[in-house]
Amino acid sequence: MVTRKKVALVSLLLVLAFLLWGCGGGGGSWTPGNLLAIVIGVDSSYSTANLSTVSLDEEEFSISPSLISNLCGDTVVKTYRDYVFIVERPSWGTVDSPIYVYKVGEWDNPLKNYTLGKNVYDIVFVNESVAYAIPWGEAFIQKIKPLTGEEIRKVDLSSYSYGSDGSPNAAKGLFTNGRLFVILQRYDVGTFSYGEGKLIVINPNEDSIDRDITLNSKNPQDLDHYGGKLYIVQAGRLFDPSDDAIDVMDLRDYNLRKLCDNPLQEEGMDLYALEITENGTAYLLGGGWPNYKVYEFDLRDGKIGGMIYEGGYITSIRYDSYSGYLFILDRGTGSGDGKLVIYDTEKKRIVEEIGEEKLGYPPYSIDIAAFD
Predict the structure, then answer these.
(1) With DSSP H G I counted as helix, E B as strand and the rest as coil, what are the percentages for the chain, rounded to 5?
(2) Which pTM does this prediction carry?
(3) Are 257 and 247 contacting, i.e. CB atoms less than 8 angstroms apart?
(4) Mean pLDDT value across residues 275-292
(5) For residue range 179-191, what is the model confidence (pLDDT) as tens digits?
(6) CB contact set of 316 (below 8 Å; sequence gap of 6+)
(7) Is the pLDDT reported for residue 15 higher than 50?
(8) Which of 1, 91, 224, 305 sits a CA distance of 20 to 30 A from 115?
(9) DSSP assignment of 33-82
């Protein structure tokens, strides 16, 4: 169903299309008839997981819990329209990742299952026929046909490897402006140290590396784009918020500069995730112990705004441009207090909190299925 919020959003996006080049978001002029949050929950011992859905139509937030059960204790989800890709990472990501492809509503059996490289952190979709799988534990990226798992080719990253595992630890990708941008964490599992953080730019026509860019800190965690610029969040050494940074890069000329240093140092928090709405409002996830927090963040000057949420262990945040919601995955403290928090970025308030008992397990990973 189409809500008034969705209609207003489409109108806004049509205006922004003329005003902004390369802005974030992704809603375009198409309004989905169906909108579902696909949620992976993982038990507190990280031994098993399930898949649930939450309807986002008309703010009903109806839940269908445990549609798929007995998944690996380290499982994430990615979506493309009404296709759902369950990515398991067994044995602490030291073996190949099983992938299960489902169509929304057809949960009894997967359409396809296949394996990709070790410890797949991300799948970036170009379209229904082409995607890039990003395995953290390999020295390559896999270009695949996502519905079948057929590998088209590998993009060699071995020259960026760092440490004893022979991997550059590619962590996340983003496809925009006709290029694939991938962050490399370059972690040495033997010494627990990091090399220089890297951003690589891949030309999808030849699957060649156009250029690599050295970041201003280490251990990049996330990237997003808005207004013709790419923003890269870097955590540096974990549990040390004194070496964090956010870089900004102009997508026209690849000029990179540091936007800010250590924005959450006074809070004792590392930087973990950044989500940007289509009107340029940004949200930053900071993590310390025992609390994680979500803040508004000013992209112009790198200043921290107001805190919108404080919780336990927040695995991720995810903005959906169709609904205007920011999803906060709060696993709580391990004592049954995990919840999926839904924050309305237009009303600037939390509109729903779904406790882990309704999902089966505390939330761990989320993506949005938007389709007719």
Answers:
(1) 10, 50, 40
(2) 0.92
(3) yes
(4) 96
(5) 999 999 999 988 9
(6) 272, 273, 285, 329, 365, 366
(7) no
(8) 224
(9) SEEEEEEEEE-TTSS-EEEEEEE-GGG---EEEEEEEEE-SSEEEEEETT
